[in-house]
């Protein structure tokens, strides 16, 4: 006789594929901790922050995120949590379920600024910066994009030249998350030796970071320009192990992985909002969730949401195994952000006119995702990455 089978749990609309069964207890604990923090510290205020176009108390929020172990979460040593890639991804999902700007704060801090120092910095640089960045006492930013060079960083105009044993750094960087509140900027510039990374402390003469305003997306996020006018830096300001574009591009790949998860957080919030709304909003004498067209929308949103989470989990397992390829990250970023935007737009139609109100989170997430869609690689760039990987032919030029 065969052994009796376990009792099959009932269908769970919040986890229709039973993905939670695939997660380790540590992963679930991280997810639940970050979700609880976001519910307490972000959700009660985020609509007001978004409407005002500011992120008040960003330094305090950074310290709280540091206390959670969310900054540089997947890095080892120097006060970092050393968590799995899956745990980090789940944290990104929960943060972006609150707001993309909060997830961006964490991504830029950990996956760009801290990751660049951790992977390419000297031991002295790591000890100087990483412990304080892990606690949130120091915020970092990452300067690669320029006013005229986004998708083509090889054309950057920022440059550094030697002056005795020092470096003189000149240029401008644009759309830099955390820039105005950062204690240190990782800035990439052309040199006679190729592209190099420089650590620029806030307050260095010639360096400023004016905040960018008048945004209709990522409004609850600090976005800045970096201005560098003959900034004098000592020789030990250079990241010694980063030479060429491979350095900054590897950092971007690490950050894009977090976006693969984060986009599904925004999508989940919009789907759950639409599902609840459909159960209570009545038209023609009954809840709109009882109409076939609304159910079709909800079913399609659930399909793409949980397929996206499965894709993120698969990529996380590959990262933890040391087998994740940059092309696979492009696969995830392209699919998940694109599908997340479609979920948000569909959720907006379920809510009707209420969908444009900040009383609900749907339009806020939809407009945020318009930035997520194009930063750290536009749709077209990721399509071309995959196109080259599939055909072996480079169509970038």
UniProtKB/TrEMBL annotation:
Occurrences of domain Acyl-CoA dehydrogenase/oxidase C-terminal (ranges): 243-390
Domain Acyl-CoA oxidase/dehydrogenase middle residues, every copy: 141-231
Pfam families: Acyl-CoA_dh_1, Acyl-CoA_dh_M, Acyl-CoA_dh_N
Coiled-coil stretches noted in the UniProt entry, renumbered to this chain: none
Residues annotated as domain Acyl-CoA dehydrogenase/oxidase N-terminal: 25-137
CC cofactor: FAD
UniProt KW keywords: FAD, Flavoprotein, Oxidoreductase, Transit peptide
Superkingdom classification of source: Bacteria
InterPro entries cross-referenced by the UniProt entry: Acyl-CoA_Oxase/DH_mid-dom, Acyl-CoA_Oxase/DH_mid-dom_sf, AcylCo_DH-like_C, AcylCo_DH/oxidase_C, AcylCoA_DH/ox_N, AcylCoA_DH/ox_N_sf, AcylCoA_DH/oxidase_NM_dom_sf, Glutaryl-CoA_DH_mitochondrial
Transit peptide among keywords: yes
Keyword Transport among UniProt keywords: no
Family statement: Belongs to the acyl-CoA dehydrogenase family.
Protein name (Swiss-Prot/TrEMBL): Acyl-CoA dehydrogenase family protein
Originating species: Streptomyces hebeiensis
